[in-house]
Write a structure and sequence with these properties.
alpha+beta; YaeB-like fold; five-stranded mixed β-sheet; 4 helices; 5 strands
Length: 99
């Protein structure tokens, strides 16, 4: 079966693998204490993975990164959580993880 145009399944697979391995980075930003609970340790990688595992394509959206339009930003909004990330191979970068 072909990957849908939104790339949700592949993005989900890649972000879950990064969380499982602990191989992810955090984009520097203002208000990191409010906007990225994963970076501050307020939520664990396992908690974020559990939310993403329960997500569906309906919870996913994408856009282009403001600084580099060639980078696709993925957003998963699930159970009141907002998880925003992107890939620059071989790295997975989190921008936001918050309620």
């Amino acid at each position: 079966m072909k990957e849908p145009k939104d790339g949700y399944k592949e993005a989900k697979r890649k972000v879950l693998a990064a969380l499982a391995k602990g191989s992810y980075l955090h984009e520097a930003r203002n208000q990191v204490d409010v906007k990225n609970k994963l970076a501050t340790g307020e939520v664990s990688a396992q908690e974020v993975a559990d939310l993403i595992k329960k997500s569906t394509g309906k919870d996913h959206s994408k856009s282009s990164h403001h600084a580099d339009r060639s980078i696709t930003i993925h957003v998963i909004a699930r159970q009141g959580w907002y998880i925003k990330f992107y890939f620059v191979d071989p790295d997975t970068w989190f921008i936001s993880v918050h309620r």
